[in-house]
Specification:
This protein is of the alpha+beta class. It has one domain. A 7-stranded antiparallel sheet has the order 6-7-8-9-10-11-12. Strands 4-3-2-1-5 form a 5-stranded antiparallel sheet. Helix 3 crosses helix 4. It is globular, with a radius of gyration of 19 Å. It starts with a helix and ends in an 11-residue tail after the last strand.
Length: 262
């Protein structure tokens, strides 16, 4: 009898602890989010993180993440990729945008908009910044990976495929990017075509995923990540940090992989 009460008490406390670990970071993120903005007037101006193609001859690949618009920004980010081959006069921007799919258009967008823009008022973080020698070959690999993305016509905010599913897909196919997505990139754990096993988005480890809802990732860049209902809990060992849903990384920042002074 006593052992039964002990087991029930232990189970109750464990469930409470897990619930608090999930809920408290999300509530804190909601409290710190900025709501009430009008998307029509929210800034889409350059953040100054991309070089000017007019004065930059070298090849450039960059990956950005910015908090999504409205209440969703308390939980997650939108990610996108930009490239500029050697001597090119403009950047090409690759991203998945949900409202386009909702209107019957392809979710995958390839264009020449501002590469480093604010995402409807949210400043972007630079996740990857590769420049110079060898980057033109990486750009070709990115182009092939984008062409192979199997969900170009689809979008589902949760658990994916969404904008972060797309960016993670490119990272898996182009390990040279060294992509390290933040824990707030909800949808990154949805493996393309609904697979159960794959490489991690950085290409430095392995990932198990049940349709992006439950999973486990082990990688040199990712460290240890547990995916619960699309939310990431984790520990980065190489650049010490905790990973919490909504809040993101608590510790050393992500290494953006820059070289040649980037």
């Amino acid at each position: 009898m006593a052992s039964g009460r002990f087991r029930r008490r232990w189970l109750t406390r464990t469930l409470l602890a897990v619930t608090l670990m999930l809920v408290l970071p999300i509530l804190a993120s909601f409290a710190g989010s900025s709501g009430g903005r009008d998307w029509r007037t929210a800034s889409r101006e350059s953040s100054g993180l991309s070089p000017d193609p007019a004065t930059t001859q070298e090849a450039v690949v960059q990956v950005f993440a910015a908090r999504t618009f409205g209440w969703r920004g308390a939980l997650g980010v939108h990610t996108w990729i930009v490239t500029k081959p050697t001597g090119a006069a403009q950047f090409t921007r690759y991203e998945v945008i949900g409202w386009r799919a909702m209107r019957g258009a392809p979710a995958l967008v390839i264009g020449h908009g501002t590469p480093d823009s604010y995402w409807f008022g949210s400043p972007p973080d630079l996740l990857v910044d590769l420049r110079g020698e060898g980057v033109d070959e990486i750009i070709l690999q990115v182009v092939r990976a984008v062409a192979a993305y199997p969900h170009a016509e689809e979008y589902r905010m949760w658990p994916g495929p969404n904008s972060n599913t797309f960016t993670a897909h490119v990272g898996r196919m182009v390990p040279a990017l060294g992509l390290h997505l933040p824990p707030t990139a909800i949808g990154k754990d949805y493996l393309a075509e609904g697979g159960l096993v794959g490489t991690s988005p950085s290409g430095t480890g392995l990932q198990l995923s049940l349709l992006g809802v439950l999973g486990l990732t082990l990688g040199l860049k990712e460290g240890v990540e547990v995916n619960v209902l699309g939310f990431t809990f984790g520990l980065d060992v190489v650049r010490p940090a905790l990973k919490l849903p909504g809040v993101g990384r608590v510790g050393f920042p992500i290494d953006n992989g820059g070289r040649d002074g980037a």
